[in-house]
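Good morning C.,

I know you're traveling, so I'll keep this short. The sequence:
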Amino acid sequence: GTVAMVTGASSGIGAATARELAANGATVALVARRGDRLAALTGQITAEGGTALAVPADVTDSDQVHDATEQTVSALGRLDILISNAGAAFAGPVLDGTIEEWEQMTRLNLLGSLYCARAALPHLLRAAETGPREVADLVNISSLGSRTPRVGSAVYSATKNAVNAYTEALRQEVADRRVRVSIVEPATVDTELFPPEVRERRQAERGYPPVRAEDVAEAIGYLVTRPARTAISQLLIRPTRQPR
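The tokens, ready to paste straight into the viewer:
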């Protein structure tokens, strides 16, 4: 009877998390802009015995976020878990940075996350009060970059640091109402977050394998299946060989 909504579900951590939650028995609403990919993932989850609903939406538009959330609840009956994963990353120095890229990261990484939390919270609070789990979960996907800013990632790190700050404040706000608000901070993950040329360059510089999206998804699955008495508020995931 558990219903989860996953944003950024068309690829990477979002798609892997949707499959993980569906495998654990949740009905999953898939939210992203790329409807064709959502349709393909819905088919994959269904073929594996799960249940999924594709809900195309742009999380940088607060009205679309509200409508996607209401569509999910209307179609599936409730909302117990929100995985707020949609994000963007552009690398570059501050001196010559592209304002458009800064604004896109801010809208998607920070405002989009806030829009999703605002739309989902009334339903999560209701689920915590009336659902058999006696708890609901809101999970924000941040980044190790929120803790360790590097040259070229100033604005990206700033947006993720802001996500960390509001997540902790929100956790305190709703803790006594049995909504667990958690943050997951992956380090280097093999996803489409960065452009291909950036991924290739960074992989050559690292010389060690990154974490896979499925690894992060398994950790998220563990987090949201803890007993109602237990909250894992912060989870940092690094490749074994990543020194910092």
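Safe travels,
E.
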